[in-house]
Write a structure and sequence with these properties.
Length: 76
């Protein structure tokens, strides 16, 4: 799921691919609170996975985001 999240970040949110790595924090890749809202919306539209922005704000790294999305995807 990490690669899928990375693809969304790069293609839809224009985050530089070189900046994204599993241990990168949201702040390191430039995801402020508004970008987190956008990411939550994109995850719903592109993957059919409902993850609230406040849940994404509780994550620390890109890997944490991918893990949360994978858990939600498996539960649906």
């Amino acid at each position: 799921m990490y690669e899928v999240v990375k693809d969304i970040l790069v293609r839809s949110m224009r985050v530089r691919a070189d900046d994204i790595r599993p241990a990168a924090t949201r702040e390191e890749i430039g995801l402020d609170s508004l970008a987190v809202v956008e990411l939550a919306e994109l995850l719903d539209v592109r993957l059919g996975v409902v993850v609230h922005d406040w849940e994404l704000l509780d994550t620390v790294t890109v890997e944490d985001v991918a893990r949360l999305v994978a858990e939600r995807k498996a539960a649906s």
